[in-house]
Amino acid sequence: MEFQTFPNEIVFFDLETNVPNKTGQHFHILEFGAIIVCPRTLEEVESFTTLIQPKDLSVASLRSSRSDGITRDKVADAPSFEDVAEKIYGLLNGRIWAGHNIRRFDCVRIKEAFAEIGKAAPEPSGIIDSLGLLSDKFGKRAGNMKMASLAAYFGLGVQKHRSLDDVRMNLEVLKHCATVLFLESTLPNQLEGKWQSSSKIMTRSRSSYQTAQRAMPYSKGSLGKMTQNVKNLLSKAQGNQALQSLIKHSHSLLR
Predict the structure, then answer these.
(1) What CATH number did the domain enclosing 144 receive?
(2) Which candidate in 26, 28, 100, 161 is catalytic?
(3) Which ranges of the sequence are coiled-coil (predicted)?
């Protein structure tokens, strides 16, 4: 079957797998989730998620520490990867792949899963790995670069470690980061001067009008270097349609 490709569309995807705890044990995909977003507006236009039954059910945990976690019972009646491979191929092939740490994990697992069933794996037209991108451009102001930490930094809730929820959270994190970087690049002198003058900022409660202090999540003097990184990012983004989409979305939020 021939599949139409969409080289300018972005597909955010995420895999949930078992955690190998024995020597020689491999990763097995237990859930796949993806959203396709419009490259001009970054609005979600299509979504898909499915649990996946591994060939060896014993690799799935009997219980989960999370209330909505993936357990052996949940995947026992799920389709196999081969059953949903065609759908996954159609979603991924020829699009820009986006996700958090996908270069080292999700991309590798997808290729392994297709190889296991003897079928050609989908190929991306480009890759946006938010872990590498944000580590380089946003810095560690949110602490470590885990999705849970970034989401907490922006008040986006708790990461559920379910594929569809996580990809939607990933997109929102990128939107927030892009907006912050846009603001910093737009008013570097004003923002840099104010933020470097104190390690705390003053916020006013709308309900009680009481002034409170909140510690800045990054150290003094770091913003100058960050501003230069932002300028470099904006310069490079002129020829990168995917990055340009993120910046245009940030600009639209400020109107």
Answers:
(1) 3.30.420.10
(2) 161
(3) none
| Structural domain includes residue 148 | yes
Q: What single string gives the DSSP state of each residue in the chain?
A: ------TT-EEEEEEEE----STT----EEEEEEEEE-TTT--EEEEEEEE-B-SSGGGS-SS-SSTT---HHHHHTSPBHHHHHHHHHHHHTTSEEEESSIIIIIHHHHHHHHHHTT-PPP--SEEEEHHHHHHHHTTTTTSS--HHHHHHHTT-------HHHHHHHHHHHHHHHHHHHHHHHHSHHHHHHHHHH-SEEEEE-TTT--EEEEE-SS-TTHHHHHHHHHHHHHHHHTT-HHHHHHHHHHHHHT-
The yes-or-no verdict on residue 229 having pLDDT over 80 is no
Active site residue 249: no
Its pTM stands at 0.74
Per the domain annotation, does 252 fall within a domain?
Answer: no
Q: 162 lies in a domain?
A: yes
Q: Is residue 196 part of a domain?
A: no
CB contact burial 17-52 (16+ within 10 A = b; e otherwise) = bbeeeeeeeebbbbbbbbbbbebeebeeeeebbbbb
Q: Which domain holds residue 40?
A: 10-186
pLDDT in tens, 34-89: 999 999 999 999 999 999 999 999 999 988 766 568 999 999 999 999 999 999 99
